[in-house]
Amino acid sequence: MVSINTLNAITKQVSIYGYSIVLIAGIIGSIANLYVFSRKRFRQSPCSCYILVASVFDFFNISFSVTTRLLADGFDIDPFANNSVGCRVRTYLAFVFSFTTVGCRCLTMIDRYFCTSRSVQIRNLSTKKLARCLLFVNCLTWMLIGIPVLIVFDSIRVNSKKMTCNTLNRQFTDYFSFFLNPVVYFFVPLIIMIVFSVLTYRNLRLMNPLSYSRTKQCTIMIIVESCLFAISSILHGTRFMYIVLAIDLKRDAYRAAQENFFYQISRITFFFNSAFAFYVYFFLSKDVRSVVKGIFRQKRNRIIPVALSVRYMLKSQMQR
After folding, report:
1. pTM of this prediction exceeds 0.90
2. G-protein coupled receptors family 1 profile domain spans which residues (predicted)?
3. Hey, which residues does 155 pair with through a beta bridge?
């Protein structure tokens, strides 16, 4: 059996390397998404509006939430734990970034169902105007729902040497643990994505492959991304279910170390969907790959003429 010290050391290394990989991959992927889906060939699609807004919140979620988790769990440096205002703002922003991103992805999946439907009335719901309205409502909703976080969270002293950012409000803890996280964040989005993925896949089978190739590409990559969300959220949802079921369970030091290891794994996988969305798009969409390849072609085309002009100048000088 692994000792407590060894298990704690493994947990710390998993936190450092896991969060570091997610941080680097997530920042690169979010910036790449913003570049690709702001190009002319994608701008006209309502789906691109959802992906762009989700990418903005992914960037903030990864660069802010993952960085603070890396510092706190990997290096025992929590710059917000000793500051009441910083604690509340950090928790509120992490809440808004995470939930708004999930809302954007649900809207993306719903839009894919709209635009692949055989019904003209349903297809007409896939518009940029409706997308902007729904995105505004989505952002505003989570900003308002997260307001209690600014009230109940605070810096709490764990012992003489350690402070943590948490809440002692039992009603809010029950609301967050029993409803907000397992139901609103995990089960409801999962059900929405599964239902609309099945409906969209059924629509795809009835589509003309020659007429809707780009729509099919975008739809398939959104369906696969929904599967990634389901996988990355399983441990996160399981963790909160375990917290609820084992709230009165007495724990020894070894059990606490085991739970901490599982918590770190679930926290890291929680960010997978935000960190790796672009790579799903890249591998599944020819259009996304062509935009990315175009960046390197432009750079190569800029370098070659400069090299030729320098060679021509040197040749002219030698002839003189």
Report:
1. no
2. 29-281
3. 165
